[in-house]
């Protein structure tokens, strides 16, 4: 799990240099500070007669919880105890296609007359009601446009949403981020409902959008496929009810969304921040069980007792059932988006689990800082014959410059031993999603005439992801080429 040979040597109480030597004889060229893969660790284990078990952070957390007799995602209990829960939906799509507008429109249109509070606030998630075949059905929306939330949660191995609404502007058609979003949802095995947006515009061409997405394997029902397409206007409020209905029908057709409200609550943190007056405030999504005021909970490395819960209208709630988002007050610190929360027996247990998690997060962060690479590191390590793969994410101001950069990189002669991979590309500012991807794949981000969005820069800093900025293509190429040349392994 990205640990270095030195870390491993420390763990098993041997000298790192001897491990380097041993690996050399086994045909692997590795230095002591380099991060090594699971296979290499297992290989060493065999050689040393150690049983090496590679434990993922998720497994590690599962073990921690098990030691307290807790299972995250535990059995839902008897069939009879299960009730239908609302689907949880994320809205994805290309920039400017109307994700924010759609989320606002759905949030605003659904304020039930006379409901206390009235004005809906942004808390990161909200629930709406819709009438389907005379039945009142609920849908939960993750209120974070783009796929930042999706990526952050997936990076943590947690499944946040049941259904994705893919927004495509009918006057613009399928664009790069449409395809990217589509691939994200497919990879997560999440059914897609397409909202063909901006149909109020005279130049809207919803038929073209259907044709384009069919080419990507997302075939509309009316063409014999299994994806529901709904023409909407987030601006004029056209067909929003039809879109909600399509979500419910898709959920009923392809998912079995039921949960047992009778057990201790578990779920995910959607977003969290420090409020000056109220202290740490976290919006959580209850995935199973029922969360109640007074419950002792752990959320990531934070713990506490639920002091109060508020819904998206700012109204206090005594309990939150499966599929319900709620703003929770009373935590000791601010947990991260995508981390899980669980209700435990008492405050003491909550604190113990939280302390263990916090210690582990700190250790993992330090390890990450040590192994993450910068372009300069690449050059330095090249001379030693270490790095063999350079992952890049390209972001530019216009698609032409991104393509030019990628073409020029593809044309670089780098030999067989080193490889350069462009793992993602796009137009626009560097986003948190880009940084998350870079962190997950040890990539460097190249910004061509674009900068990192506010929070993305902070995240990159925290995760130790390098962002290089250029405004001249050949300069970018020169530096990358130099790094790659330096990466070539010397011959032994
Ligand atoms: P996002 O980047 O996907 O979140 O897109 P936004 O929601 O910020 O919308 C981008 C622009 O398109 C804004 O100027 C919106 O007012 C506009 N817009 C969004 N939905 C519609 C729509 O249904 N009709 C029209 N005419 N404009 C829309």
From TrEMBL:
Q: What is its main location?
A: cytoplasm
| Record localization | Cytoplasm
**MF terms (GO), sorted A to Z:** translation initiation factor activity
Ranges of residues in domain Tr-type G: 84-256
**Where GTP is bound, by residue?**
93-100, 143-147, 197-200
Keyword Nucleotide-binding found:
yes
The signal peptide here is none
Q: Which key words are in the record?
A: Cytoplasm, GTP-binding, Initiation factor, Nucleotide-binding, Protein biosynthesis
Write out the similarity annotation.
Belongs to the TRAFAC class translation factor GTPase superfamily. Classic translation factor GTPase family. IF-2 subfamily.
- What is this protein for, i.e. what is its function? One of the essential components for the initiation of protein synthesis. Protects formylmethionyl-tRNA from spontaneous hydrolysis and promotes its binding to the 30S ribosomal subunits. Also involved in the hydrolysis of GTP during the formation of the 70S ribosomal complex.
Give the protein name, as stated in the record: Translation initiation factor IF-2
Record organism: Nocardioides vastitatis
Full protein segment contained here: 354 to 845 of 944
